[in-house]
Amino acid sequence: MPTQLMNEDFETKLNQQILINYGTRLAISKVDFIGNNFEITVDYRRVLHIPDSSTNTIYVRTLQFPSIYNGEFKQSEQFKLPLDELNRTIKNKYAELRANMIKGVIYNKNVMIPLIKKVPLFSAFLNKFTDIISALVYDDIIAIDGINQRLENDLDYKKYFEVIIHEGYAQYDKNGNLKASEKLKLLHKDSSKKGSKTKDVVDEVLFNVIKENYDYIVHGLKLKILRTYVNLLSCLNYVTVQNNIKKISMGIKDLFRIYKMLYGKIAEFRFEQRLNYLASAEIITKEKGIVNWSNLNPLN
């Protein structure tokens, strides 16, 4: 038998072993022979079935992580993949995928502002940012007495002050007052020239602060509720981006299945509860078990 056919036959047998022992998500994409040894490259693949209720179409897409493992083996020994190493790599690849998905949401002002302003949960959890930014935009200053009153009420205010200062929207003067920076004043002035309202400047600054400090807000300030909804929105966006379409309708159970694949376990009633909040914020629409939404952040 010619060498090329022998190699192809060997690769086929290896893939059959992987299918039997490790399931359908792993596949060998490359085999190189080195004397009595062989080196393989393994890919991870997962088929997604994404139904669109509005068109009665099922989109079949493949989530693929190429080259998640490279290893050398002896032909004389039993073939066995290092599952712990593979699982760690796959877990890290999913984390990278989610990080990119999340950026598509937190960098989208048209999504984040309604989420922050129209969902009551966020109005409550992010009100310290709104309070400080509003005072600086409308009044140019928070006097030291106002700073102390806020700190007496809640010491966590200090962390919120620090974030806004770090982003360059304010600084302390020699008397300890917190004053609007030139950066904030210029933003306000430019917005006024464009006919924007003062509240739009508050929204713009709030959006920028959250966008640039998302991880700290979620973990440092422990506002994990924000991550909960950003994750869900990123899942919605992922579905439309995968299909390269502008709008889609999907049954809640189908969407729930995809969300669990990307983000892990969640109680179904909590998942639907979050969809209801997004519907109330008019980011999505929801009716009779069907969710409708538009591509939140087209990549093209």
- Written as H for each helix and E for each strand, in order along the chain, the element string is HEEEHHHHEHHEEHHHHEHHEE
**Main sheet makeup:** 3 strands, antiparallel
Report the strand count: 9
- Determine the CATH topology of the domain at 127-221: Arc Repressor Mutant, subunit A
Given helix and strand content, the structural type is alpha+beta
- Uncertain regions spanning at least 5 consecutive residues: 1-5
Number of helices: 13
Alpha-carbon distance between the two ends = 49 Å
Assembly state of the chains shown: single chain
Rough shape?
A: elongated
CATH architecture classification name of the domain at 127-221: Orthogonal Bundle
Structure write-up:
The model is unreliable at 1-5 (pLDDT under 50). The longest helix is centred in the N-terminal third of the chain and has 24 residues, at 83-106. A hairpin with a 5-residue loop joins strand 5 (170-172) and strand 6 (178-180). The protein has 13 helices and 9 strands. The strands form 3 sheets. It has a 3-stranded antiparallel beta sheet, sandwiched between helices. A 3-stranded antiparallel beta sheet has the order 4-6-5. The radius of gyration is 26 Å and the shape is elongated. Helix 2 crosses helix 11 (224-243). The two termini are 49 Å apart. Among the domains are: 3-82, no CATH class; 127-221, Arc Repressor Mutant, subunit A (Orthogonal Bundle), CATH 1.10.10. It has helices at residues 3-22, 83-106, 109-118, 120-125, 127-139, 144-153, 157-166, 182-193, 198-212, 214-220, 224-243, 252-263, 268-280, and strands at 26-34, 37-52, 57-74, 141-142, 170-172, 178-180, 247-251, 285-287, 290-294. With 300 residues, it is of the alpha+beta class.
